[in-house]
Design brief:
This protein is an alpha/beta fold. Helices cover 44% and strands 17% of the residues. It has 29 helices and 27 strands. The protein is elongated. Bound molecules: adenosine-5'-diphosphate (ADP).
Length: 835
């Protein structure tokens, strides 16, 4: 005998449900068995093997002929209930009386229906739990004596909460479990007794037989519901997990089915178009390329491995693209291809001369380099050259000429703003869109293993949390290491030892020291006006005319025009802007010519203004009037030399010192030193000792946007201070540079050549230079030295004598103790006038 689903629905559903209804009605009509005086009832037994029925539940059962059928027939004959007793162990075939659970369920059995297989089926309805007392009859069917168990049905808050929780959990189970009908939850809502609710849920959800038996034997309804609640939570977990798995599996199946379908379609389309073999043909071609590429061992092995992977992949896998890009990189990088060096020094000298004017020292050094290489080709450890100089001084173009002289390929890589090591070394292939670093990208462009490789702006390298690109460069420039440069993308050692590296920088200040140590510095100082005119004449004009499609003999630039461009339209140490302005004039002429208008064949100063508009720069600094508190420093910047006015104002106050104009720490200290020097010499300058407490000093160094630092403005600040306090004017055409000590001694400074050139460019007449810098004048063109009066100085006293007007009558301030300087009064007057 065993429980099963409802009998299969008959064809007409309405008929079926009304028959069902009828049968259920019949069940309800059977009364509970009356108890005797002991409160016991005596009934026939319906033995159940692997089925547990619960009170209130209606379910169909199957009954095979034998004692069970006899029991039921007996009960029906007497219009009585039966007691369902479940076997403890369903495996036992012929159970004895001791094999039944001690708790059973009294139930009503409906009309018997005979089935074609000789069995019967009936609907049963559980009524109440009973506890077995004894068995008065065993044959031909069992009769049991038992006591009905009464269940208390009080519902307090706690029980109510428990019931709600159970209903809630049950509702979620119903939602997830497809085998439970949605109405099951509705049914649970309508049950108000805890025991019944527990039994109802127990019947609905899937539980092991043992668990059902335990629940049957729990007489306390609250305990029962608590256990059901706990079982529901577990069931819900399982159902949720099942649901997740189901959804995932479904998605995967959908995805792979879709892919399969698309691939099949693609195949069909390719076959239809006759392209089915393209993939295999491409693979074959790649193989041939790899074989022909003469790759060195390691690269060949890597390519072979990737090729192997590629062959095993369907053409459409995304991985294919990644592998192909990698193979392309291996194939396109130069591994063996090289050019033969032309180490003929005279040939090299010719070429350098042919394209560059001046730069004698630089050219000499390069020819020495080539000479050493030609005499000792195996000596590969020559120092790396670093060209240092302002923009437009010919560093790059000289590098290009060297490559031409040697017969090597020329490539450049700008390091300006490179902050990430990965920019040099690339990203690992696991990153999407990864590529080799810029170094190998540039090598690919070179196409040979021994190009002349210019690393530009090595002083503009950055470093941050993404790693230090300088460290990667150290490896690149170190002959001990660079034969096996490692790139993250390539993951193969790449030999850079045959490359001729030349680096360039505007200033050595910002080159990482470890890099600086490995390089030999070659300075490209700026050009003076005469040199610029010469360069323009020999190279720039010719090149620009050619670019504009004009014949070199067509247009002549007069010296006065070039001079005007240099003085009034450019302000630079190099010739880059000069070339640009010449280019602008050439384009304007070209336009006139192509419009068939009249155009000048000789460009003079007047045409310059006509073509380029009003002048951009004025040599004002050296002109104008001598002033109190304004001295001219000559400074060094990355763009070459500059002249830099230092302005000082003294105002009524409390002896404070203020410095403005983006001034660095060293320059501030140098201003303090200058002030201390002046204080210590107050008597010499006829200043009353309390004057420094009564006045505030404001030092300003204009051109605010440019950061300024260094000690070399020391004597200029001191000069301006003395002038401001003594109210003696400073000569406008005197420029100076030098560090000052507290005792007024003057110390040497750097960048002398650039500074002197800048002073010359700005039209200064007299330069005060620390005596120990006189040796540096050897690098300054003769023409400049004859134009300028250069006075070597060792002490501040000498500076004062040359730069400041001699004292006249007793200064205003000292007579009256008035705090205003002449300069301040003048400015106020001017402001008044403007208003
Ligand atoms: P840098 O690399 O120093 O910034 P470039 O090499 O780009 O400067 O030079 C700028 C332009 O000036 C180029 O066209 C270059 O040919 C020209 N030039 C600079 N110096 C000279 C020189 N001594 N002789 C001829 N041309 C020069």
């Amino acid at each position: 005998m065993k429980g099963d689903d409802w009998p299969s629905p008959q064809e007409d559903e309405d008929e079926f449900s009304s028959a069902l209804h009828q049968r259920t009605e019949e069940l309800y009509r059977i009364p509970n068995t009356e108890p005797d005086e002991n409160g016991w009832i005596t009934c026939a037994v319906l033995p159940l093997r692997d089925l547990v029925v619960f009170p209130h539940m209606v379910s169909p059962i199957f009954i095979s002929p034998g004692p069970s059928l006899l029991s039921i027939q007996e009960a029906q004959f007497n219009v009585q209930t039966v007691i369902a007793l479940t076997q403890k162990d369903p495996e036992i075939d012929e159970p004895g009386l001791e094999d039944f659970l001690p708790v059973g369920v009294e139930m009503a059995v409906g009309r018997l229906l005979s089935l074609p297989d000789g069995n019967n089926s009936a609907l049963v309805q559980g009524r109440r739990r009973v506890e077995v007392i004894d068995f008065p009859q065993k044959e031909p069917f069992i009769i049991v004596r038992c006591r009905p168990i009464d269940e208390p049905n009080d519902v307090d808050h706690e029980v109510d909460a428990l019931m709600r929780a159970s209903r809630d959990l049950f509702q979620r189970c119903v939602q997830l479990d497809r085998s439970l009908p949605d109405e099951a939850h509705l049914y649970s809502i309508n049950i108000s007794e805890p025991g019944w609710l527990a039994d109802m849920i127990t019947t609905a959800i899937s539980l092991p037989l043992k668990e059902r038996q335990t629940l049957l034997m729990l007489p306390d309804p609250i305990e029962r519901l608590k256990r059901v609640n706990w079982l529901l939570a577990q069931e819900l977990d399982v159902l949720q997990l099942e649901d997740e798995i189901q959804t995932k599996v479904q998605t995967e199946v959908d995805h792979s089915q879709r892919e399969f379908y698309l691939r099949e379609q693609m195949k069909a389309i390719q076959t239809e178009l006759g392209e089915g073999d393209i993939w295999s043909r491409e693979i074959a071609e790649l193989k041939v390329k790899i074989e022909a590429a003469q790759l060195p061992g390691e690269a060949l092995a890597a390519a072979g491995k990737e090729m192997e992977r590629l062959t095993q992949m369907p053409a459409m896998t995304p991985e294919v693209g990644i592998i192909r890009t990698y193979l392309d990189w291996i194939l396109e990088l130069p591994w063996v291809n090289s050019t033969e060096d032309n180490l003929d020094v005279r040939h090299a000298a010719d070429i350098l001369e042919q394209y560059h004017y001046g730069l004698g020292k630089v050219k000499d050094r390069i020819l020495e380099y080539i000479a050493v290489k030609s005499l000792n080709p195996k000596k590969s450890k020559q120092p790396i050259l670093c060209f240092v100089g302002a923009p437009g001084t010919g560093k790059t173009s000289l590098g290009r000429s060297i490559s031409e002289a040697l017969g090597r390929k020329f490539v450049r890589l700008s390091l300006g703003g490179v902050r990430d090591e990965a920019e040099i070394r690339g990203h690992r292939r696991t990153y999407i869109g990864a590529l080799p670093g810029r170094l190998l990208q540039t090598m690919r462009r070179a196409g040979t293993v021994n190009p002349l490789f210019m690393l530009d702006e090595i002083d503009k390298l950055g470093a941050d949390f993404r790693g230090d690109p300088g460290a990667a460069l150290l490896e690149v420039l170190d002959p001990e290491q660079n034969f096996a440069f490692s790139d993250h993308y390539l993951e193969l050692a790449y030999d850079l030892s045959k490359v001729l590296f030349i680096t360039t920088a505007n200033s050595i200040n910002n080159i990482p020291p470890a890099l600086l140590d490995r390089m030999e510095l070659i300075e490209f100082a700026g050009y003076i006006e005469e040199e610029k005119i010469e360069i323009a004449r020999r190279f720039l004009i010719y090149r620009q005319l050619e670019e504009c499609g004009l014949e070199p003999y067509e247009i002549e630039f007069l010296d006065q025009a070039l001079r005007k461009i240099i003085r009034e339209y450019t302000y630079e140490a190099g010739v880059r802007n000069l070339e640009r302005e010449i280019g602008r004039i050439c384009r304007k002429v070209a336009r006139l010519k192509s419009e068939k208008k009249r155009y000048p064949t000789r460009v003079g100063a007047a045409f310059v203004e006509k073509f380029l508009g009003p002048p951009q720069f004025f040599t004002t600094e050296a002109e104008g009037q001598d002033e109190i508190g304004v001295a001219t420093a000559i400074a060094w910047t990355e763009n070459g030399g500059e002249i830099m006015p230092v302005e000082i104002l003294v105002l009524e106050g409390k002896g404070n010192l203020q410095i403005t104009g983006q001034v660095g720490e060293v320059m501030q200290e140098s201003a303090q030193a200058a002030l201390s020097y002046l204080k210590s010499r107050a008597r010499q300058f006829d200043l009353s000792p309390d004057i420094f407490e009564r006045l505030d000093v404001h030092i300003h160094i204009p051109e605010g946007a440019i950061p300024k630092d260094g000690p070399s403005a020391g004597i200029t600040i001191a000069t301006a201070l003395i002038s401001a306090f003594t109210e003696r004017e400073i000569y406008k055409d005197v420029g100076m540079t030098g560090e000052i000590t507290l005792r007024g001694r003057i110390l040497p400074v750097g960048g002398v050549r650039e500074k002197i050139l800048a002073a010359h460019r700005a039209g200064l007449k007299t330069i005060l230079l620390p005596e120990r810098n006189v040796k540096d004048l050897i690098d300054v063109p003769k023409k400049v030295l004859t134009d300028l009066k250069i006075i070597p100085v060792t002490h501040m006293d000498q500076v004062i004598n040359v730069a400041i007007h001699p004292p006249t009558e007793k200064p205003h301030r000292q007579r009256k103790g008035n705090a205003k300087s002449d300069g301040a009064e003048k400015e106020e007057e001017l402001a008044d006038k403007e208003e």
